[in-house]
Backbone:
C-alpha cells in the first residue's frame, strides 16, 4: 500500500510523456519527436522549377540547381492548375544538376499554377 | 489488494523505463525509420490569357513621353539619345493557390520574359523593385514611378542584373527563348512577408542615353501567346 501512490504518479507521468510525443509530431516544424530530431533533407537550395509547355499545356517540369547531396533521390512532381492535377516522378542524377520530369497528363497553362515537389532520399 | 499493490510496483518499473528510455528510444527509432524528405512548392504566374490581370506590363518610351503602350504586343528596353525605353511589369501574387504563407521562406523567384530581338551589343539590364503604384493602361514615360531622369535610380540599387545581346559571353544571346538571370528572390520575400508592397519591377538599360540606340524586345502579355507570356516563378518552403 505504501508504494501504491508513487506508482500512480509515475504512471500518470509516463502516459503524459507518451501524449507529448504524439503532439510533437509535426511536419511543419521540420522536426520529429520530443527530442527535436531534425527532418533530414538533402538541400535547402533555391531549386529552379520551370514548366515546359506544348500547345498551351504543361507537359513536363525541369528542376535544376540540384546538389549532388540529392543524387539518386526520387523526385516527385505534381502540377495543379486549379482544375486538374498531373504528376510524374524521376531520379535525380547522381551528380545532381537538373532533371526533367514528364507528367502523366498535360494540364492547361493557367494564370497561376502550383507545383509541389518532394525529393525522397537519397 | 495485494494484487493491486503488486501491480503498481510493476507499473512503476515500466514507468521508469518509459521515463528514462522513451525519449532516446523514440528519437532513435524515428531517425532510423525516416527518409530524407525535401519538400518544395512553386507558384508560377503566367500572363495568360491576354486579358488576365495576373500580369500587368507596359513599356514607356522617352520619344513618346505621353503615350501609353499598355496594350502593345511587345515590350522594350532601350538606350539611346532621347530614345530610352523602360519596361514595367507586375505579377499578382494573390493568385497563387494556396496563398503563399507570410511565414514562408522564398528560396528562389525568377522573372521570365521572352526575347524576340536582341541588341547588336551586349547590354546590361538592371531590374529595380518599384516602390509606388502604376497602372498598365495609363502608364507613360512622363508619369512613371521612377520619374523621367535617365539613369535613375542608380544601378547600385538594382535588385538584379542580366546581360543581353551579342557577342558571345552575354547571358542572353538568342531570340526565341526566355531571358535568364533576372532573379528577384529578395523582393518577392519582402512581398510575401508583407514588409513591402508589390508594385512589380522596372527594367532599364544600365547606361541610358547611349549615342547609339540599342533596343531589346520581349513578348508582352498582350501578344496572347501562352508560350511567350511573361512569368514569375516563385519557389518556397513552408517549414524551416
Residues:
Amino acid at each position: 500500500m505504501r508504494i501504491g501512490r508513487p506508482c500512480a504518479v509515475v504512471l500518470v507521468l509516463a502516459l503524459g510523456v507518451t501524449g507529448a510525443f504524439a503532439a510533437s509530431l509535426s511536419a511543419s516544424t521540420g522536426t520529429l519527436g520530443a527530442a527535436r530530431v531534425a527532418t533530414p533533407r538533402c538541400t535547402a537550395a533555391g531549386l529552379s522549377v520551370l514548366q515546359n509547355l506544348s500547345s498551351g499545356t504543361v507537359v513536363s517540369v525541369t528542376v535544376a540547381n540540384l546538389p549532388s547531396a540529392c543524387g539518386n533521390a526520387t523526385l516527385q512532381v505534381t502540377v495543379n492548375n486549379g482544375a486538374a492535377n498531373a504528376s510524374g516522378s524521376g531520379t535525380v542524377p547522381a551528380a545532381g544538376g537538373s532533371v526533367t520530369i514528364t507528367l502523366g497528363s498535360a494540364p492547361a497553362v493557367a494564370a497561376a499554377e502550383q507545383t509541389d515537389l518532394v525529393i525522397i532520399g537519397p | 489488494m495485494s494484487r493491486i499493490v503488486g501491480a503498481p510496483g510493476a507499473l512503476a518499473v515500466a514507468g521508469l523505463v518509459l521515463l528514462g528510455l522513451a525519449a532516446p528510444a523514440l528519437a532513435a527509432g524515428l531517425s532510423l525509420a525516416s527518409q530524407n524528405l525535401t519538400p518544395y512548392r512553386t507558384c508560377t504566374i503566367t500572363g495568360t490569357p491576354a486579358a488576365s490581370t495576373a500580369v500587368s506590363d507596359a513599356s514607356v518610351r522617352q520619344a513618346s513621353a505621353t503615350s501609353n503602350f499598355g496594350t502593345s504586343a511587345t515590350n522594350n528596353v532601350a538606350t539611346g539619345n532621347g530614345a530610352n525605353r523602360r519596361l514595367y511589369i507586375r505579377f499578382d501574387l494573390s493568385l497563387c493557390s494556396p496563398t503563399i504563407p507570410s511565414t514562408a521562406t522564398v528560396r528562389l523567384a525568377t522573372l521570365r520574359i521572352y526575347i524576340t530581338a536582341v541588341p547588336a551589343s551586349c547590354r546590361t539590364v538592371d531590374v529595380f523593385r518599384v516602390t509606388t503604384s502604376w497602372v498598365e493602361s495609363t502608364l507613360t514615360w512622363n508619369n512613371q514611378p521612377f520619374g523621367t531622369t535617365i539613369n535613375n535610380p542608380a544601378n547600385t540599387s538594382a535588385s538584379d542584373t542580366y546581360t543581353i545581346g551579342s557577342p558571345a559571353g552575354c547571358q542572353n544571346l538568342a531570340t526565341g527563348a526566355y531571358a535568364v538571370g533576372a532573379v528577384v528572390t529578395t523582393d518577392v520575400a519582402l512581398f510575401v512577408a508583407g514588409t513591402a508592397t508589390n508594385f512589380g519591377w522596372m527594367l532599364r538599360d544600365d547606361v541610358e542615353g547611349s549615342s547609339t540606340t540599342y533596343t531589346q524586345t520581349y513578348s508582352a502579355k498582350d501578344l496572347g501567346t501562352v508560350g511567350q507570356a511573361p512569368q514569375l516563378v516563385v519557389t518556397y518552403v513552408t517549414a524551416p
